Amino acid sequence: MSHDAGSPPGITWHLYMLRLPNGMLYTGITTDVPRRLAQHQAGKGAKSLRGKGELTLVFHCPAGDRSLALRLEYRVKQLSKQQKERLVSHPPLSLEHLLPQVKID
């Protein structure tokens, strides 16, 4: 799992999903979706994507700061294939509903 390191405060991170030719969905985070997609297409980045063929960006959305983006990425990776496909086919405006609600006593 590769992430952009050391981004300055105030930078918006994005969560994205790529579809592999075999139908698998890859989930990642970045501060620059087009640049990251180009890196993946060039075989740089996630080793699990190298040599898998043409990648298609099927979902992306703002995910806040790096900490929030990492938490959202983890939650999306825990979703079933069917749940991920629902995100792709019916993209929400926000993914915050995936994060556990903080209880304030």
Describe the structure.
This protein starts with 12 loop residues before the first strand and ends in a 16-residue tail after the last helix. The protein has one domain (13-87): GIY-YIG endonuclease, CATH 3.40.1440. It is globular and about 35 Å long. A 3-stranded antiparallel β-sheet has the order 2-1-3, with helices on both faces. With 105 residues, the protein is an alpha+beta fold. 30% of the residues lie in helices and 21% in strands. Strand 1 (13-19) and strand 2 form a beta hairpin. It has 3 helices and 3 strands.
Q: What is the compact description of this entry?
A:
Helix content is 30%, strand content 21%.
How is the topology of this model organized?
Elements: E1 13-19, E2 25-30, H1 33-41, E3 56-64, H2 66-78, H3 81-89
Antiparallel strand pairs: 1-2, 1-3
Looking at this protein, list some descriptive labels.
105 residues, alpha+beta, GIY-YIG endonuclease, 3-stranded antiparallel sheet
